Amino acid sequence: MLRIENLNKSFGTKKVLKDVNLEFERGTISMITGESGVGKTTLIRCLCGLETYDSGRILYLDEDSKDNKSIGLVFQNLNLFPHFTVMKNIIYPLIKVKKIDKRQATSKAKDLIDMLSLKGLEDHYEYQLSGGQKQRVAIARALAMEPNYLCFDEPTSALDYKLRDNVGEILQKVASKGRGVIVITHDRDFAKKYGNKIYELKNIDN
Amino acid sequence: MDYILEITPFLLDGFKTSLWVFLITAIFSIPLGIIVCLLRLSRIKIISMITQAYILIMRGTPLLLQIIFVYFGLPIMGIVLNREVSVSIAFILNYAAYFGEIFRGGINSIDIGQFEAAKVLKLSKTTTYLGIILPQVFKIVLPSLGNELITLIKDTSLVYVLGLGDILRAAKTLSNKDATITPLFIAGAIYLIFIWFVTILLKRVEMRLEYYK
User: pTM of the entire structure?
Assistant: First the structure.
């Protein structure tokens, strides 16, 4: 379980997060909704260590994880490495961080490529991919690191309805493998359709 | 024509000096430029400030003066270097400052998302820079890097100040001796051909890096 306790975050004098308390479980999809500017992205950035917070705690309570802070992120603008092929985007962190050899990394990446319908695109670069394909590569890259929790920042913002459902199905697949899925979205229909839990962040008065 | 054939070997011999100054500077100042850039971007203020001062001095004073300082000035402090080493040190330090700033511009133009993606994937800082950032920076800065390398070729003529015989010095000597400007034209043509060759080489490297957008 991943628990956020009384999290507070300000940017200068502007308070963005005030006493946020949330819990995320593995194997479920948690949707975080709310209007623009309520701090959804800031919250997820705090979870992933990209942002510091002023006070409060983020507790990783999974005992089976060697790396307690096992949490991945699929960015809204994906941030694929443009000079790497699809395959290298996936295997590079595996080789460099998990220290597994290239052959093993490639075999693992192939499984993810199959799962995310990316077959045939292994040697493509980012600029050769469609929006949906890029997103699936970003998901594959994050999943390859086997995080206990995987966050998605507005995964449906640039997608049409068909692709939106496609993403929803991927989220379900990821959760079914025992990972906690945390999704930031302003799309309430999507949240209702695919979320096991829905949290709504509200604007706070300064 | 006979005169041109007669003086060309003499000029080419002078060109050897220009060539080694160019090569040694290019080989050492580019990696050093990357280090200068990283020190300049350091969050430790004192390191960044010292690097800024170094860049200011290197870019703010003539290279000719720096060559003179290394050869004639350092012996006052007990450091005696021969002409070749003095020239190499002055050129490398000077060009590393320029390259450092070029790389800094390149790193600053990389989307912050690339650093963040690397961080979330738990890549180390070294891996992030070597594997993710610098390859992209290199593609961005290559045209500016090429410009500097071409300037460097022409700057090599400054070694005359220490009495090293480069191509321009050879041409001037011949020109004075034979009372003709032909050697200077030949020297110009040799420079032009060499710069043309380097330009083609740089273009090829640029094309190689065109594999992604």
Answer: 0.88
